[in-house]
Amino acid sequence: MISAQQFSASVGSGGNTVSGSFSKDCTVVDVLEIPLPISTTDDPTTIAIPYATLESIAMQAYFPNNDAVSNCTLCTNAASSGSPAQTFTLKPNKVTIWNSDMANTNFISANITALYVTNPNTVAGTLRITLGRNPT
Fold first, then answer.
1. How far is the C-alpha of 50 from the C-alpha of 63, rounded, in Å?
2. Which strands form 112-119's sheet, in the order they lie side by side?
3. What is the pTM for the complete model shown?
4. Considering the chain, what percentage of its residues have pLDDT values greater than 90?
5. What is the rounded CA–CA span in Å between residue 96 and residue 60?
6. Which H or E element spans position 20?
7. Which of 102, 129, 130, 112 is closest to 52 using CA atoms?
8. Which of these, 23, 84, 33, 27, lies nearest to 59 by C-alpha position?
9. Residue 2 CB contacts under 8 Å (≥ 6 apart), including other chains
10. Mean pLDDT of the region 68-73
11. What angle is formed at CA 28 by the lines to CA 91 and CA 48, rounded to 5 degrees?
12. 19 phi and psi, to 5 degrees?
């Protein structure tokens, strides 16, 4: 079954606006919600995100009452004290997105086997990740 993910953006000032929207068809869509415990460092989660089949990704450190004030850190494949494959800074309640139809390159650069999340806030949240894939 093919599932379409919808993407849209609008940027403007005064009467000048640039906007657009498009959809991305994927045969597999994974929706992950990973707890962000209070004041935690390198909280591990085992996961399998195959780089070669990735068509889209959206990530968000979600705090329901907008009461988080500090950025969260997401490391892939190793804890921050080791040698993570990649490290992302996630601003509270802001979404980081990519899909294969965008002009910028995929910010994921390798298969992901584990996530390590740091939440320095005194409130718990949820790491939300949506993946669109087309396995062969």
1. 27
2. 40-49, 112-119, 72-76, 86-90
3. 0.84
4. 53
5. 7
6. strand 16-26
7. 112
8. 33
9. 25, 26, 27
10. 94
11. 60
12. -145, 160
